[in-house]
């Protein structure tokens, strides 16, 4: 039986479920392989324990960065998805949660036209 994929926008409201439930905005990023959660949000949701460590390559760094990984459940559009996410300081980013291809692949179609929080492009 083939599962029907839900359509999501680039930015969606999600719940991060650990020992506590925290609601926040998440960016669905088809360019990212895995999921990432901000350290402060992970603490609020009381995620843990750390189940592994992953090395992340970043274009601006010579050496891969090591990040802790935790099991997490996301509630997206009313349905729960159990997965893993790395924990990183995302306070300088626009969104505290990044959903990558690992979760998107079999569950979602990302339609950027459905994104509710778009900024209009400035004309040159």
Explained architecture:
The termini are far apart. This protein has 124 residues and is mainly β. It has one domain: Acid Proteases (Cathepsin D, subunit A, domain 1, Beta Barrel). It has two helices and nine strands, in the order ββββαββββαβ. The strands form two sheets. A six-stranded mixed beta barrel has the order 2-3-8-4-7-6. A two-stranded parallel ribbon has the order 1-9.
Write the SSE topology.
Blueprint: E1 6-8, E2 11-17, E3 21-28, E4 36-38, H1 39-44, E5 50-56, E6 65-76, E7 79-88, E8 97-99, H2 101-107, E9 108-110
The ordered H/E elements are: EEEEHEEEEHE
Give the averaged pLDDT, no decimals.
Answer: 89
Percentage of β-strand residues: over 45%
Question: Helicity, in percent?
Answer: 10-25%
What general outline do the C-alpha atoms trace? globular
Number of domains: 1
CATH class: Mainly Beta
So, CATH architecture? Beta Barrel
Distance between the termini: 50 Å
Uncertain stretches: 118-124
Strands ordered across the widest β-sheet: 2-3-8-4-7-6
The name of the CATH topology is Cathepsin D, subunit A, domain 1
Q: Class by helix and strand content?
A: mainly beta
CATH superfamily: Acid Proteases
How many DSSP-defined strands? 9
Over the alpha carbons, how many angstroms does the gyration radius reach? Answer: 15 Å
Largest sheet: 6 strands, mixed, barrel
Work out the helix count. Answer: 2
